[in-house]
Amino acid sequence: MGKRDELIHVPKRIWHKHIQQALEAYTGIESEQSKQTTTGCNKRRNWERVSLNPWDVTCIECREFAHATYLNRSLIAAGAAKNDFLPEAIKQELKEESESAALVAKAFT
Ligand SMILES: [Zn+2]
Q1: What does the DSSP 8-state code read for residue 12?
Q2: 53 inside domain
Q3: Residue 33 predicted with pLDDT over 60
Q4: The domain containing residue 71 runs over which residues?
């Protein structure tokens, strides 16, 4: 009998999942999704075995993947926030996004 995977992973398409959740919260309509998804460690797993919550994810490889992904997001937002052609409100939003992504990245270490 094969060893069962008891780990909780992150979805590989983290931002796709975030946008999907935001849309569902906004419209109240649950979007259709396939039973399984590809994980940060490149496995196929049911959605029940996948989470975006740093406190839930137990797969080390997925934690590293999520850490790198959120850190990258934080750096991109911080860089964009320095663009002087953007309105102040947008720059402020990007700064906040950068800070929260950095916090999530840290939580995944
Ligand atoms: Zn994993």
Answers
A1: S
A2: yes
A3: yes
A4: 14-107
